[in-house]
Amino acid sequence: MSSRAEIHLVFRNLLVVCDVQTVPARCIPLLYWLSCCCRQLTAISTLRQSLNLSLPSTWSNLSQLSTFYYSGTPGGTIELTGHLPPSWGTMTNLTSFGVSDAEELSGPLPDAWNGMLNLQSLTLTASNISGTLPESWSNMTQLTEMAVSYSQVSGTLPASWPAFTNLSIIDLVENNLNGSLPMEWGNLIPFASVDLRNNSLSGSLPESWGGQSHLRYVALVHNTLTSSVPAAWSSLNPLQVLACSPLQEYIMVQVPCCCH
């Protein structure tokens, strides 16, 4: 893998790769000015970044931006910093947002991002993002996969999220989530995979989840769930893996387990 620090800017079909290590420091602000002012910019990605960067609120003016991707350098001294700008909620053409290994990125998940009506993929992993999961995000009806993992998100799982009409993958591994599994999630369609390992969830497995016709993977290891698998879950024919006990990591739904 290359060790260069790069900024990728895509103008329509033209890819401009800027090697940060060879760009004079005085020119770095120019790169960001260019990205902020050019309405034809469709994608921004950073690889093995070695700059102290924040997400400018003015990037909400990038009306054609469809993809943003940042991958940090684990253990590095310079990271993506600051907060997720609420103003980005007006970026209606954004379809993919991904940030990984950004330990200096903090603050809450913005409620205003419910305006990203065409967002299909949202990934936030290994950051210091905190706060709660916004109920209002259920307005993002084009979202098909969401991963907000290895962060500091707390609170309960939103009961309103069944309003997601295309969400099939939910990954909320290793946060500080508590409360029970919402029975309302039994109405999530096409709910295929949910990974809630390493949280502080409690209570029982909802009977209502047994009505899912697409659910094939459920991971609940290292929570404090108290009941066995409901009989209604035996009708989950597509279900391939149910992980709910640290001693029985992978078991089929037909096999009873204790979810401690």
Describe the structure concisely for a colleague.
The protein has 260 residues and is mainly beta.
How would you describe the overall organization of this protein?
The protein is mainly beta and 260 residues long. The protein has one helix at 28-37; strands at residues 6-11, 14-19, 41-47, 53-54, 67-71, 80-81, 96-108, 121-130, 145-149, 154-155, 169-171, 176-179, 193-195, 200-203, 217-219, 224-225, 241-243. The strands form three sheets. The protein has an eleven-stranded mixed sheet, with no helix packed on it. The protein has a four-stranded parallel sheet with strand order 10-12-14-16, with no helix packed on it. Strands 4-6 form a two-stranded parallel sheet. Strand 1 and strand 2 (14-19) form a beta hairpin. The longest helix has 10 residues, at 28-37. It is globular. Residues 1-7, 9-31 and 247-260 have low confidence and may be disordered.
